Amino acid sequence: MSDLEQILENNNVRPTAMRLLVLQYLLSKKVTVSLIDIEANFHNSDRTTLYRTLKTFVENGVAHQIDDGTGSTKYAICEENCNCEVDTDLHLHFHCANCNETVCLTEHKIPHINLPEGFKAENVNLVVKGICDKCNGR
């Protein structure tokens, strides 16, 4: 069994050919990607199949989705042992206003936020916007 197949199996996702290709693509990226980015890479693939693959990855903890304020949902591979829980696994995202890339800053965790009684967080998304290290000349 390949490493890619093992990642999917560990997350209870059946390793189909398309899922393996999309996983390999996501793993090769250092930045988040949108469905449009993935479509551009898989010219002959059906948009619905790609979307369902991403949805399956998110639902099973293979990837997470990010709303970076650009109007297009982005996707990135989850860290090993991530379960995308609001209280334990959330990290910062950085969106560069110059190159328009969004990156996960997984080493920078979002602190727990105490909500008023009766409120229940289902998703937390913190995006810092500015100029990335590449565009800043560092």
Automatic annotation (TrEMBL):
Zn(2+) binds at residues 96, 99, 132, 135. GO terms for biological process: negative regulation of DNA-templated transcription; regulation of secondary metabolite biosynthetic process. Its cofactor is Zn(2+). GO terms for molecular function: DNA-binding transcription factor activity; transcription cis-regulatory region binding; zinc ion binding. Signal peptide: none annotated. InterPro entries: FUR, WH-like_DNA-bd_sf, WH_DNA-bd_sf. Keywords: Metal-binding, Zinc. It holds the Pfam family FUR. Binds 1 zinc ion per subunit. PANTHER family: HYDROGEN PEROXIDE SENSITIVE REPRESSOR (PTHR33202:SF22), ZINC UPTAKE REGULATION PROTEIN (PTHR33202). This is Fur family transcriptional regulator, ferric uptake regulator. It comes from Arenibacter nanhaiticus. The lineage of its organism: Bacteria, Pseudomonadati, Bacteroidota, Flavobacteriia, Flavobacteriales.
